[in-house]
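Hello Y.,

Per our agreement to keep a running log of every chain we model this quarter, I'm adding this entry. I've kept the format consistent with earlier entries: sequence first, then predicted structure.
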Amino acid sequence: MTSPFRISLETISEYGGVLVRIRLSNGIEGWGEAAPFLSITGETWRTALAILELLKPRVVGRDLSEYGQILDEVERMIPGNTSAKAALDIAMHDALAKHAHLPLNAMLGKAASQLETTQTVGLENVEETVKQTKALREQDATRIKIKIGGKPETDVKRIGAVRETLGNDFSITVDANQGYTVRQAIHALRKLERYEIDYCEQPVHYRDLEGLAEVHRNSAIPIMADESVHSPQDALEVVRRNAADMVNIKLMKSAGIRGASRIAAIAEAAGLPCMVGCMIETKVAVAAGCHFATSHSIVKYADLDGFTSLKVDPVRGGVDLKGSKETLAEGTGLALTVDEALLHKILA
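Predicted structure for the entry above:
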């Protein structure tokens, strides 16, 4: 990675993931990616690779028109391991869309070529937070996410310094990644109200839905559930408890596009706007997230900048990010290629 990336859960200094290629008998290829995050999906690249090797016999030789049945079998066979399943799901969807001669988002029901995404500043000290935010503003970013979840008073100083230095003519969202207690979250969010915060992601522990609901009741800043929602069942529970205003859908949490679509349907029925987010990912998974986001009307926000943290991305095409504007490449499926020579050089 270009530099270590710190959030309340851990500090990440290198990316480890798995790229998956499905090749059809007619020569069409579909690409997918497992981008595990140990403290969120409970996986590493090694476990994802092992699961994918285990699943090969369930996939090779099958008719792609049976992709739903294949994914059902995978779900019954192996609990959890959502990023490994996402890789398989994304590769199948890429191949299906190419077979249909359509961009993936068009196959999903609605084609759009551009979206607006946040770019992210990690959990840094006051000076570094201002420095990194200023650099993103100089690159024309208009939507910036700042990680919080350290000491509440320090976090308030960090956001205050950003506003005082750079003004109010851009959007700020904050993400605590479960870093606060309920009491700390309510205290910090009340102090952050003056700084025009669009929303706060996952202020408390992902299992503490009662606490999340309490923060939601006591915060003027909208609350977004992230790590609390991995599955449609999780989304239903957030709705039932009135625990959040919004939901963050990530393909790596939801086991891919099919699971993400089910979460989006529940959120839409409940009137909860969604964001599509990402882990640290190459353009394979980010492009898949962009196609999903642009094909679902309940998705109002995006946080799809994961590939910008990589020193080298072996993927060509897919998406192009300038400031906060993310443009999907023209073509069928995910509209990308993987530079395998560069990939092998990286791995050498």
